[in-house]
Amino acid sequence: MSEDRPDIRLEVDGQRYGGWTSAEVTRGLEQCAGTFSMDVTDRWPGQDDPRPIAAGAPCRVLIDGAPVITGYADDVETAWDARSHSYRVSGRDKTADLVDCCPPSTQLKAAALPDLARRWAALFGIEVVVAASCNKPVPSFKTDEGDTCFDMLEKLARANAVMLTSDGEGRLVITRAGAQKAGAGLQMGGNLLYLSLQSSMKDRFSEVTVKGQSAGSTGWNASPNAQAKGVARDPAVPRYRPLTLVAEQEEYGSAATRAQHEVNIRYGKGHSGRARVCGWYAKPGELWQPNCLVDILGDKGRVLATWLITEVTWRMDDGGCITELTLNPREAYDLIPIAPKGKKGKGKSTASWPGLHE
Question: Which intervals hold domain Baseplate hub protein gp44-like N-terminal (predicted)?
Fold first, then answer.
């Protein structure tokens, strides 16, 4: 690892390129495909011949030799001035093909999310990592015309309260919120350059009802008496605000689980933080990563809150290297009811955060 700044390389068709003027790489817990964008020159240090980069070329983005994106160059912009010829390259992980492309017409019985994910991912040469239990089979499954692979897989993921994301190797990862701590905390007056917090009630509801179809139904359009429903409540919403959702199909998972997951996700998105820190490493050899818990530290190292890193952007420009973090309460991704006011669960809750109150 470089002592002053990380070594960032774009590997295209096996050839590694340096000479960056700027770079930005983003990976997130709720992002199926990581993204990158950077400016490069067509004459690289140590190379005499220009090596243009073609749109659609297989590529990897490496930080100090470790892959953070494995996928394809989506777009290439070429620019000229009096002295140089440069390219702006942007692209995504291999999992972008699941986001963009439609699956073949599929009708299966007793299929589970991991089975379908592997079936469709294999079409694009993508590996699947199952890091969370989600093996409840769907008695009957049929694709919808026009929906992409990700659209269909996300319906199953929501019902199982899991998320579809990617790793640096371009694999599809089926996961839930992590419990691992980041290599460093966010220290006010220390590594923190900037911190903002937001609390919102706009998209939160006091009661969420999910209506689905019972195991006795035979398809997407079962009769009303075949329906099942689940109800979950957010005790922190101060007034009556009901919401009813129609699940894709109750056999995809419990309607009660789906309702609680919806409440928790809305709770988490109603509490968010944005942090900016120096450098790209939480500690030597460990990049800041999504799906890790991080302590927010106040005076004398006192822990004010412990939140989940849901998105990471590594950014480099003329000003140096910084990391931008998106933070949310981990409770947003748990399958347990939100604790009522005044009751404490595990760890520090949002209510303990100075400036954010419910």
Answer: 7-93
